[in-house]
Design a protein that fits this description.
By secondary structure, the chain is α/β, with parallel strands linked by helices. It has nine helices and eleven strands. 35% of the residues are buried.
Length: 237
């Protein structure tokens, strides 16, 4: 049994190396994308994509926390907006940089290769392929699929970047939203206040034995305490 984790990591490493030979796909929006075929073909989160693009016309800067391979970053850059991308996953980070460079945006994006938390730290991150989380047992992920990542608070990363700017902060960090918000008081209080698009689950993808997100209510309370109103993007909600 002890050999299985080593074998799994070997298979993933080989798979990642093979993936890097795949050619980027030209998307329906005109930019090219490598690393995620569903994103490149326009089949990924269509409602979220449309909303994000519409909101991008109203902002000065786009911040993507959990940027993955840079799908939403590419949308913002293609619409002429500067981007700050935050991504700790090594595989995703490689494709994120590749996609920025392939589209000629290498000098128009700031990339932070780390995770966001309450403050500076070095934490274990669990996951494989395109998904990872700071939450132990996230999506029932075995502990063997863990690595180390540095963290900083969102306030520390953004610092004075948002002062006087209209911003859109898009967050997809697989259950660690509450942890991020505990280090984002200055960002939440920025003027003008940022628009947030944040993925948060109540029951899906929880660790084994956990029925509901233990910080679901607290996460929304942080927003409410800073004067935000919340809505859902799903049409059936």
């Amino acid at each position: 049994m002890g050999q299985f984790p080593k074998l799994a990591h070997t298979v993933l490493t080989i798979s990642d190396a093979i993936d890097r030979f795949e050619r980027p796909i030209v998307t329906p929006w005109g930019f090219s994308l490598a690393g995620h075929k569903a994103m490149a073909k326009g089949a990924f989160e269509p409602e979220e994509t449309n909303m994000m693009r519409n909101l991008t016309h109203e902002i000065d800067i786009f911040i993507n926390v959990g940027a993955n391979v840079g799908y939403y970053c590419c949308h913002a850059l293609s619409l002429g907006k500067p981007v700050i991308a935050i991504e700790p996953n090594v595989r995703n980070l490689w494709y994120l940089m590749k996609n920025m460079k392939n589209n000629g945006w290498a000098q128009k994006v700031e990339i932070f290769p780390l995770a966001v938390g309450e403050g500076p730290d070095i934490l274990e991150i669990y996951g494989w392929e395109t998904g990872a989380s700071l939450i132990k047992g996230w999506q029932k992920m075995p502990e063997s699929f863990a690595s180390l990542t540095p963290t900083l608070s969102l306030d520390r990363i953004l610092s004075k970047e948002l002062e006087g700017k209209r911003s859109l902060i898009m967050v997809d960090i697989e259950g660690a939203e509450f942890m991020m918000l505990k280090g984002a008081s200055e960002t939440l209080s920025n003027h003008p206040p940022p628009i947030w698009m944040i993925e948060i689950h109540l029951v899906e993808h929880q660790p084994r034995g956990v029925k509901t997100n233990p910080h679901f209510r607290e996460t929304f309370e942080i927003f409410f305490q800073h004067g935000y109103q919340c809505t859902t993007i799903e049409k059936n909600q």
